[in-house]
Amino acid sequence: MRTARHPEANGEPRGLPRRGASATGRSAEGWLVRSLYRDDKLSQPEIARRLDRHKSWVCRQLVLVEALDLAVQADVRLGLLVPRAAIALAALPRGNQVPASAVVIRRGLTVRQTERLIAMHALRIDIDGPSYRQHVAHERAAGRDGKLAQRAPRRDADRG
User: Phi and psi dihedrals of 125, rounded to 5?
Assistant: First the structure.
């Protein structure tokens, strides 16, 4: 019979609040994870175990506090930018994160749209230029799954 895990019994901290945490709380979580990782030299899986989280959560927290420009971190703390969109922005060089964050906030982009914006940047597509309109037209023709729309196969009778 399995029993519930009680980290407090082992002298370990209880897991951080999961839902309903404020943006400031999420930022504090990231700085706590960074401190455990950099200062206390704990591994990411060990931090995840101690905080009762998944190791991918630990990695995302590190990205939020280490790979993002300070202005983008401030946007997350203020609630102007959701953490998942900020993680997508972390793929950009720091010099491009602030302008991209401003575009995401100004246009009210979703996480998926933000990820597409980052992908377009990787392809060097200017969001205000004609190549962007061509890209959007291609995406619409491709359908939801991003693959090119398939034509129905021809029947032998149609080939005559």
Answer: -95, 120
